[in-house]
Amino acid sequence: MEEARKLDLSLIERIDKFMALLSSEDERAGLTRFREVAARYRRHREDNQYRPLLAGQKETGLQGAKDGAPLYEAAVRELKGTIRAKQAAAQKTGPQPGDAPGSSSQSGSPGGSSTKSDDNVVDADFEVVDDDKKKS
After folding, report:
1. Which one, out of 4, 31, 94, 98, has a CA that is 20 to 30 A from the CA of 61?
2. Element (H or E) spanning 122, and its range?
3. Strand, helix or coil for residue 11
4. H or E stretch covering 129
5. DSSP letter assigned to residue 50
6. pTM of the entire structure?
7. What pLDDT is attached to residue 101?
8. What Cα–Cα distance (Å) separates residue 4 from each residue in 37, 44, 123?
């Protein structure tokens, strides 16, 4: 649990850094929504998973994990939406100072990304990664 809490803090720091890279109000609004949904999920884990587990209530903690799945899925959806908005803006304007190497604006795909959003996963560095590329 301590490692999960450290990862939560790291995520908060990464959100703040990523916010500085966003150029439009739509992008910032999307990341703000992600931040709020992620905070709800984090609170749910603290209250419904970690506390019961620390009190020795394994079944209650397990149920809390199951109950938190929709919150996790909502956070991932918001994050993916923010990333897609950033990628779309980058494709319209081209590479900008501060863009991460390997971001969609530098993907080499002239028409942008052709993968469907359901075929993508989000990695810890806030990039949408195609499942096929991830396996190699």
Report:
1. 31
2. strand 120-122
3. helix
4. strand 128-130
5. I
6. 0.62
7. 61
8. 17, 13, 16
